[in-house]
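Today's session is about reading a structure prediction critically. Students often jump straight to the picture, but the first step is always the sequence itself: look for stretches that repeat, for charged clusters, for runs of hydrophobic residues. Only then move on to the predicted structure, which in these notes is written as discrete structure tokens rather than atom positions. Here is the chain we will use throughout the hour.
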Amino acid sequence: QVQLVESGGGLVQAGGSLRLSCAGSGFRFGRNAMAWYRQAPGNQRELIARIFSDGTPYYADNVKGRFTISRDNAKNTVYLQMNSLKPEDTAVYYCNFVDIIHYWGQGTQVTVSS
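Below is the predicted structure for this chain, in token form.
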């Protein structure tokens, strides 16, 4: 049974930092590209970062230079280090991978106060 469990969300002031974690199980973690999406109220879910199986990262323009995605295949965990947070980063953040279909975690709330 595939599981993705996110953690690390919370309330932070603008300019602060948070690190999100996503622990995967039930699939071959190291062979899959892993991604982070987010969804703010009234908005569509958007891709913000992806890390391929070889460690190559991809970032959306609105987080490039502030967020860093990384993975530890030995721990079946993907991370999202978020620095210089802005109020517009407020959203529910989801871990994701695709293997024919999309798999999602339950999400973790990130709230950035101004």
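Discussion point for the tutorial: The chain has a mean pLDDT of 97.
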